[in-house]
């Protein structure tokens, strides 16, 4: 008996440019990706997870993610998250989720003011479903970053709260490419079903491309989507 | 009515753009203790009542123009004096 492949929606905003990479990587890891245009007001009925991909939605005007958060599809994404559905924001997707208030903190221009584009090492701080179930706590992953505004910031009280709640999922290990506070590379919401990260797991799903470590994160998401699909059937 | 919104990085927030400007000013020989770079948004509003206009611009700031976690804002209203008919 073959397992059913869960449908994962990849939202396409004007200016997204990693939507197709995500839609290529997820099927390679056992999911079915469906591209959903940002002007849609609903997600397809069978969607079991949502990915907000990287890119430069609305040209990063005003602040990155500030305009995309008002896209017609965003209330449906927020409603899906409120039901406990897994939502992963990668790079610009992370920025959008922060601006939308679905994730804590904000992303500022890199401390170096330079656009960074290179492999970085991140340490897994939280190994749990739905995003890092395939990782081990303390594991080092090599995943590329490519961004100009990835300096995650949270006021110190908020950061402390997040650390106490185990909401910091990934930290840069040794090489912080953007000046993010406390080396934070990825966070989840309080419930743990919405995650954002600056590195691009969809660009690291095959050792031929430099690293296959990103596949651990996306395959964790596919696992969670499959579990959700099974639970809903 | 016209309004100007000044958006600034909050105190304590790292402002690399401001630091770069500060550094350049020093290279030019200016004595500068600190430079911070923000953003100006000029608005032309339909509202005629200044109280109403300010309230509306505040809502714009809270919803879109500023991110309250990292930015503060200031609103300047430019009330045009009414021209009396000759």
Fill in the keyword field for this structure.
heterodimer, A: 233 residues, Rossmann fold, nine-stranded mixed β-sheet, 5 helices, B: alpha+beta, Mth169, Chain: A, three-stranded antiparallel β-sheet, 2 helices, elongated
Q: Please give the CATH class of chain A.
A: Alpha Beta
Shape of chain B: elongated
User: Which CATH-level-2 architecture of chain B?
Assistant: 2-Layer Sandwich
Q: Could you say which overall geometry of chain A the principal axes of the C-alpha atoms support?
A: globular
User: Mind describing the biggest β-sheet of chain B?
Assistant: 3 strands, antiparallel
User: What is the C-alpha radius of gyration of chain A, as a whole number of Å?
Assistant: 16 Å
The name CATH uses for the topology of chain A is Rossmann fold
**Into which percentage range does the β-strand content of chain B fall?**
25-35%
The SS-based structural class of chain A is alpha/beta
Biggest sheet descriptor of chain A = 9 strands, mixed
Q: Give, in order, the helices and strands of chain A.
A: EHEEHEHEEEEHEEEH
Q: Please give the alpha-carbon distance between the first and last residues of chain A.
A: 16 Å
H/I helix tally of chain A:
5
